[in-house]
Recover the amino acids of this structure.
DNA sequence: CGCACCCCCTGCCGGC
DNA sequence: TGCCGGCAGGGGGTGC
């Protein structure tokens, strides 16, 4: 579910809890993609939340102890605030009681997510993160450089987190459709004009998605329980067999890198 | 090194 | 109604 726009939306929706003290932490389920550290509860209790940042699809909660709480939502995770004292829901794995009488909940049915704790430099998952596609470091020239000499399909390049950090399956499909580029094209085969167009479309689709609060395909919600609305603007994702919005050609579905890939054989070359 | 293929896990949907 | 296969927003490991 959560790609860069959804994670960024969650981050923004949680900014209001900054300044809270974490009073108590209860871990109900340690078996996530990586086990929740045994020492997390004791180490985090008593700390204040000083900032909430995002790197790629990871959320980083800066704590007053100097350590960082690292959260990844995987495919099905949610990270949200609710009043304390409510019944634990199915798949609530970690609950952080906050000093303002609310609690911060990590819920994840598929358990592909991550809740880790430690100094930021210690997180191996952040070591190989690529360029933030919304940051200043991402330019058309940079995308051009990334595509040179790489034989992999351009869609796989967009989704390679070691190159570009935060683009997932939905937004890779959408950006390529907007740019008129076929997902299977070899990255190194793209012409300069195509790379420039794709660059603009990547930024545009991510920005628009954030503005609309991300895409709620099934059960995605932000940190306040609100859905996103960008799914209403999806032009190609999950539309296999349906008419292209530009030319009415049936949308093609193929599998690339194990992920469903959608494109219009007429509009995308 | 790149890449195709699996796996992790639960839930949902469609077909029978 | 219920069972089964396929599929899902991510990421990591293996073997070629």
């Amino acid at each position: 579910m959560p790609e860069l726009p959804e994670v960024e939306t969650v981050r923004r929706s949680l900014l209001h809890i900054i300044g809270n003290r974490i009073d108590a932490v209860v871990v109900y389920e340690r078996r996530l993609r990586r086990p929740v550290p045994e020492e997390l509860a004791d180490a985090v209790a008593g700390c204040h939340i000083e900032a909430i940042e995002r790197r790629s699809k990871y959320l980083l909660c800066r704590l007053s102890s100097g350590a960082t709480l690292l959260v990844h939502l995987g495919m099905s995770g949610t990270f949200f605030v609710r009043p304390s004292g409510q019944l634990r829901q199915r798949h609530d794995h970690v609950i952080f009681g906050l000093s303002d009488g609310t609690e911060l909940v990590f819920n994840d049915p598929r358990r592909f997510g991550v809740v880790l704790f430690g100094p930021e430099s210690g997180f191996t998952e952040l070591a190989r993160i690529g360029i933030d596609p919304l940051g200043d470091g991402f330019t058309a020239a940079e995308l051009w450089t990334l595509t040179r000499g790489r034989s992999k399909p351009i869609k796989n390049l967009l989704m390679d987190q070691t190159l570009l950090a935060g683009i997932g399956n939905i937004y890779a499909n959408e950006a390529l459709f907007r740019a008129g580029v076929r997902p299977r094209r070899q990255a190194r085969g793209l012409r300069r004009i195509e790379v420039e167009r794709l660059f603009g479309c990547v930024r545009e689709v991510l920005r628009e998605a954030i503005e609309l609060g991300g895409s709620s395909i099934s059960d995605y919600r932000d940190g306040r329980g609100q859905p996103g609305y960008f799914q209403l603007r999806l032009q190609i994702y999950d539309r296999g067999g349906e008419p292209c919005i530009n030319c009415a050609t049936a949308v093609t579905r193929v599998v690339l890198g194990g992920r469903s890939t959608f494109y219009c054989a007429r509009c995308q070359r």
The domain at 4-126 of chain A is CATH 3.20.190.10 (N-terminal domain of MutM-like DNA repair proteins). Residues 59 and 210 of chain A are 15 Å apart (CA to CA).
